[in-house]
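Lab notebook, bench 4. We co-purified these components, and the gel suggests they stay together. Before we commit to crystallization screens, I want a quick structural picture of the whole thing.
Request: model the full complex, all chains together.
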Amino acid sequence: MSSGTLDSLWLDSLAAATRTMRSSAIRDLLKLTEQPHMISFAGGLPAPQCFPSEELAAASERVLVNQPLAALQYGPTEGYAPLREFLAARMAGQGVPVPSAQLIVTSGSQQALDLLGKLLIDEGAPVLVEEPTYLGALQAWRPYRPQFIGLPMDEQGLRTDALEQQLQRGPRPRFLYTVSSFQNPTGVTMSRARREELIALAARYGLPIIEDDPYGELRYSGERPPTLAALDIAVHGELRHVVYLSTFSKTLAPGLRVGWAALPEALTTRFVQAKQGMDLHTSSLGQAIAYEVSRDGLLDRHTPSIIATYRERRDTMLEALAAQMPAGVRWTRPEGGMFLWLTLPEGCDGAELLARAVEQQVAFVPGATFFANGGSENTARLNFSYPSVERIREGIARLARAL
Amino acid sequence: MSSGTLDSLWLDSLAAATRTMRSSAIRDLLKLTEQPHMISFAGGLPAPQCFPSEELAAASERVLVNQPLAALQYGPTEGYAPLREFLAARMAGQGVPVPSAQLIVTSGSQQALDLLGKLLIDEGAPVLVEEPTYLGALQAWRPYRPQFIGLPMDEQGLRTDALEQQLQRGPRPRFLYTVSSFQNPTGVTMSRARREELIALAARYGLPIIEDDPYGELRYSGERPPTLAALDIAVHGELRHVVYLSTFSKTLAPGLRVGWAALPEALTTRFVQAKQGMDLHTSSLGQAIAYEVSRDGLLDRHTPSIIATYRERRDTMLEALAAQMPAGVRWTRPEGGMFLWLTLPEGCDGAELLARAVEQQVAFVPGATFFANGGSENTARLNFSYPSVERIREGIARLARAL
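Here is the predicted assembly.
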């Protein structure tokens, strides 16, 4: 009766790009590691104790009682105007003066990544990424089928010498993507010198840059370097080479799904047009709540308590690693953020280690996942923001046993 | 110094598809018609008086106080499990029994449209749409560059005879898109006979269907026909040819940005994978609030008051049109939803009429906007859900003067 069987009906309709989609290994793992006895360094979750729940509840009530329309009606694609003005003022105070007209609210930074992929990637187009890089960016962009070109990093971040060689060799990349501070997955921060070099290269070679900065405010030690966006503006008087992304997910709560993009003027209209087709606009309620607590100064009051909690957890993990890890294992010492990066002896396989670790009731993400084109099997990403200090100590001991 | 000028830097990086993007004429108009003296039939906004603000405020407080994690932490891409189970039970009660595993929460139905475009459209792929059709669908899909093929409608909805001719002629379309009840923009509902014919054609030709049903619960007169999803399940014992989309935007509030998709099993995993790359998941807070008020029975208690308000507005607009419109102007008589469709005498131009109407302080959307491939300039979409009955009467009088 039917010429299309159940299986072929929809498969015949799939776009070519759809066939390359993969589920996020991290999120699949998260499902696997939800048992209470498992100590998971695999996720990328903020500590729930750090959510300012009471302030958010109070703000939600104020907003829904006093300004129900702002929270419940359709809103402008660009975002809630008072929130955009707040963000403009806050970024200006951080050395990134951008007109609120170029600040667009997004449904988390993840939507901004997907949106930029839609705007900037054609099939086969070269896209430069750090090796390793944020898995969610790879996942957002793979459906657009770019040619990912990985650039090496060291303890100062992206190797700008390797970048320049790549730019000289060509082909012209559509953009370079970097998580400039406390990178996910390595925890490494690009040094000030490298940032200046990168902005100079961007001007010399006409290189667009996407700077993803979700963790910038979560610094536990060391000095905060200027963002690439700030350096770009310092050189050109306006945002020119850099699209800057950030989010409330790490400072307020990820469940709000509210992030933002600061955009060069030349890209803003198209960014808004693309967003309109993607979800009309970001949750009005989430935006109104984010604004309500922000104008009340909550970010500055609350962030220090997040920093204190995560600093203790980072320090605990670093101490436990130093005490427990066998010789030949190395790790990064992040000055902020949520992750550190383990390098196992050459020949060790992170995926095999994970299997043994799960037997010991501890989990992490094998590092190869974070390489656009594979490789570096002897690496692992460990999250220290979610587990308690007790569980970090116990988890690292279990990991040492698995090793 | 710089080899890339400001203008060429980002323009050189644009994806080919980006160049075809257009801003939504409706949303641009909305900005134009925000002056208080303007009576706007142009928007597609629910009446703010119909938002259950107090219940949503109370639910938000309960959720944030009692279950802050469900509302604030990262959540599963598929959606908040209790909400998905509620939706499964509710849809089963409406003759659409779908396992909750195949019900995926989306950031409004607009995200589901973008997502299905990403999954199913390659450049040049044929996509069947009603003429006219929902502008947001065209806007979501244009970046994927399909070949839109328009199918005619009459007062019974999509003309299935024209569809069958098209299917016989080929090429095989990736899918057919229909707003089956109280269509945006025409207000027309597909008759039961046409629905049965469409589901039979889908089986005969292996045709995937996207049924977009945001207004289905807002019926003011007549009898509710089964959804295409219900008929598909009745024939095949499971959802096979139909992806069914709906939303809380018209029954609770659009600012929550919570919709859902009921999917054939064969498509569900890929749908979730694509959503993961697009925004990780829909706002946890919005989902938790939607669930909290829904399990409390608010939908069934509250929807009748929306229906009463909109029925009076629809009736007022129909009466005013009958009293005021000159001979030669025709309009649809929607049994629900938010829009009706005006057909002006042959040779009249909706865009020209709009210019004169704006002088008279009344606005609408020229109908040509809703045709994938243009044409039908002598049409207009009027919204009756947002303006009060007084403003509807006055606005139609102004429109008659403009004519």
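Chain B touches chain A through 99 residues (CB under 8 Å). Worth comparing against the SEC data before the next meeting. Residues 1-6 of chain B have pLDDT under 50 and may be disordered.
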